[in-house]
Amino acid sequence: MSIKTNALIVSVSINQPTKERTDRVVSDGVAVAHNAASDAGRFVKSLYPKHLMAPIDRLCSRARSFVRRDTYLWNRNEFLLPSTRFMEFAQDAGKIELEFEQAVTAFLNNWSNVMLEAQRELGSLFDADIYPSVEELKDQFSLKFLYRQVTDENDFRVQMQEDELDELRKLTADSMREQYADLAKAPLMALQETLDKLRTKLSEPDREIKDDNGVVVETKPAIFRDSTVNNVLDECQKIIDFGDSVLPTEYITFARELRSALPTPAQLRSGLSIKTQTCSQIVSWSDQITAMLSGDEPEPTNDNVVALPETGEDSNKDEFAPLEPDPSRSLMAEIDDMFADEFA
After folding, report:
1. In Å, how far are 24, 112, 126, 291, 296 from 120, measured between CA atoms?
2. Residue 336 lies in a domain
3. Does 285 lie in the same domain as 205?
4. Do 202 and 79 share a structural domain?
5. 7 and 145 assigned to the same domain
6. Which of 62, 155, 167, 313 is least surrounded by CB atoms within 10 angstroms?
7. Rg for the chain, CA atoms, rounded
8. pLDDT of residue 339
9. pLDDT digits (tens, 9 = 90+) for 87-120
């Protein structure tokens, strides 16, 4: 499996200034007032008004969620992305970086009001001397998405003794095997989680509408959102995008067949019968996933597909099915150029 040529490692680096500071004077005063040891506790004050930092904090959270969206965990704070999704990922990542820079600029341009609001919130605890200058503060903000190729034991281009090089290659190969073993489980576990959530939603009872006296006057179907189905399709598509050069062929086959057999949200809203059939099918799919995770030979998925009723225009299965990526690998040349200097 050529994981190097079909995937790359992405991460997000986020830095922000210290937002809190221990007030030793207040901490010691509280300890004395309560006859407590000096290290019994401490008082920590917020330096910046939280509502003014909120836009920046939201973008940091969004960046962390985004980097996990189309990837699988590779190492601590590093994620594996299919090469076919690189351009789209990089464009969206660039937008988040730009929005972060704009939010930081707006915060710093409003610095005088930030200090006034901090003084209002902290009262006598406010100390202007503990705050950095605007120039210093600006350098403490950063949000950057990072990209690098997957490294294996053949990538070392440094001058080393042969025995040292052999040992380094061995350690790298061992690490790669461990990381790949974890990677091989992640796609199926993520897919199984979305299937479980779909089954839970499909099994929810009808909602009871009650009047002011608590008497049931009407029943309505449980709320069912398209995203519950689309999340399953997205996990299938992610497996397909990695391809059988990275993941086992049976994963790709399973994802294709599941995506093809899964009813659309419109079909699932058409009646109780198809919901019941789909719940039964999900149990079968989950059993297949469990078998693949344990290394057992999975049952052929075609034998377990439930025949779904036609529902007119709503039976169009392509309504929510994402298009498969272009199998061309021409993008790899661009990625190779990007990392040309890494091992020069």
Report:
1. 20, 12, 8, 61, 64
2. no
3. yes
4. no
5. yes
6. 313
7. 27
8. 43
9. 999 999 999 999 999 999 999 999 999 999 999 9
Asked if residue 203 lies in contact with residue 192, where contact means CB atoms within 8 angstroms, the answer is: no
CB 150 within 8 A of CB 9: yes
CA 234 – CA 320 distance, rounded (Å) = 10
In the three-class reduction of DSSP (H, G, I as helix; E, B as strand; rest coil), residue 216 is classed as: strand
What's residue 260's pLDDT?
A: 93
In this structure, the answer to whether residues 24 and 114 fall within a common structural domain is yes
Beta-carbon count within 10 A of 187 CB: 24
Phi, psi of 45, rounded to the nearest 5 degrees: -110, 145
Say if residue 134 is in the same domain as residue 192: no
pLDDT in tens, 34-60: 888 888 888 889 999 999 999 999 999
Structure tokens at 21: 């500071």
Residue 126: inside a domain: yes
Q: What's residue 280's pLDDT? A: 93
**Same-domain status, 130 and 200:** no
Query: Number of structural domains, the chain?
Result: 2
| Inter-axis angle of helices 249-261 and 272-294, nearest 10 | 180
Nearest to 168 by CA among 186, 179, 154, 178: 154
The one-letter amino acid at 78: E
Q: What dihedral angle (degrees, nearest 10) is formed by the CA atoms of 301, 315, 224, 320? A: 70
Burial classification of residue 40, based on how many CB atoms lie within 10 Å of its CB (0-12 exposed, 13-18 middle, 19 or more buried) = exposed
Q: Where are the alpha helices (DSSP H) in the chain?
A: 3-6, 24-33, 50-69, 86-109, 111-122, 134-139, 162-202, 226-242, 249-261, 265-268, 272-294, 331-338
For residue 311, the tally of other CB atoms under 10 A from its CB is: 17
Is the alpha carbon torsion for 252, 253, 254, 258 positive or negative? positive
**Band of residue 28 on the pLDDT scale cut at 50, 70, 90:** confident
